[in-house]
Write a structure and sequence with these properties.
Layout: E1 9-12, H1 18-29, E2 33-38, H2 41-54, E3 59-63, H3 71-82, E4 88-91, H4 106-134, E5 137-142, H5 155-175, E6 180-187, H6 193-206, H7 210-219, H8 229-239, E7 251-254
Parallel strand pairs: 1-2, 1-4, 2-3, 4-5, 5-6, 6-7
């Protein structure tokens, strides 16, 4: 299936590794030119070269940190210089520290809100007018299955990412008439470095071995395993494609059926 992404220009936040990098690779494989971002310049450079070498689309990179309030303006400047305009924005952020919501430090809550919520809103606001003017755009926000079914010991993530649910749905209602869609993609337990870190934290907290924790988690997933990054990335590539023009304001689960609710 031709996803209609050839020549499209995409910005993928927090994409030096894990889900963000997987999504960037998948979009570029469909012919889009992508800009990847992160804090590790060496990792970004290697990833951009690898994406470009595979052909179809190409990749550029920007070293930046979403905790820096100057980053949204920097991204706007670099996209304008490298691409001119932007067709696709994939909002992705790192997760906050694990822990119980009842024990959260409000100073940490405030800072993580700036990084995980306000930065996403700021970056989006800088590119949305151009998308609406041109009559085509895709904004995909990667969140977590915790916005539907709160994840134990990830209270802050559950709370902050849920804020983006109302924001994304509101934006979807307001911009669809201009050809711009807003959707969210919710990963379950996808096998990334972040998941390994969370499993290790759970093992330490519970006094169990890492294998015990991982096996117990897999047992709760109907497909019986963790997801692969490329499976998640394939769903993302479709949601930002021309083929997905009638999918708007949705939250798509990519969790192997782990969420219990309908």
């Amino acid at each position: 299936m031709d996803l209609g992404l050839t020549g499209k220009r995409a910005l993928v936040l927090a994409s030096s590794r894990g889900l963000g990098l997987g999504v960037a690779e998948a979009i570029a494989a469909e012919g889009a030119d992508v800009m990847i971002t992160g804090r590790d310049g060496d990792r970004l450079e290697a990833a951009a070269k690898a994406i470009t070498a595979r052909g179809a689309g190409s990749a550029r990179f920007v070293v930046c940190d979403l905790s820096d309030k100057a980053t949204p303006a920097l991204l706007q400047e670099r996209v304008s210089k490298e691409f001119g305009d932007l067709d696709i924005l994939v909002n992705n952020t790192g997760g906050p520290p694990a822990g119980l919501m009842s024990e959260a430090d409000l100073t940490v809550v405030h800072r993580q809100f700036e990084i995980m919520v306000l930065s996403v809103m700021d970056v989006t606001a800088r590119f949305l007018p151009g998308m609406r003017q041109r009559g085509w755009g895709r904004v995909l926000t990667i969140a977590s299955s915790g916005v539907i079914q709160p994840i134990p010991n990830l209270g802050l993530s559950n709370a902050l990412r849920a804020t983006l649910v109302g924001w994304s749905k509101s934006m979807a209602n307001e911009t669809a008439g201009d050809g711009v869609t807003f959707n969210m993609l919710l990963p379950g337990r996808i096998e990334t470095d972040r998941l390994k870190e969370l499993d290790a934290a759970n093992a330490k907290r519970s006094g169990k071995s890492l294998d015990e924790v991982a096996n117990a988690a897999r047992a709760q997933i109907p497909v019986g395993r963790y997801g692969a990054v490329d499976e998640f990335a394939a769903a993302a590539a479709f949601l930002v494609s021309a083929r997905a023009s009638y999918i708007n304001g949705s939250m798509i689960r990519c969790d192997g059926g782990a969420i219990k609710s309908v």
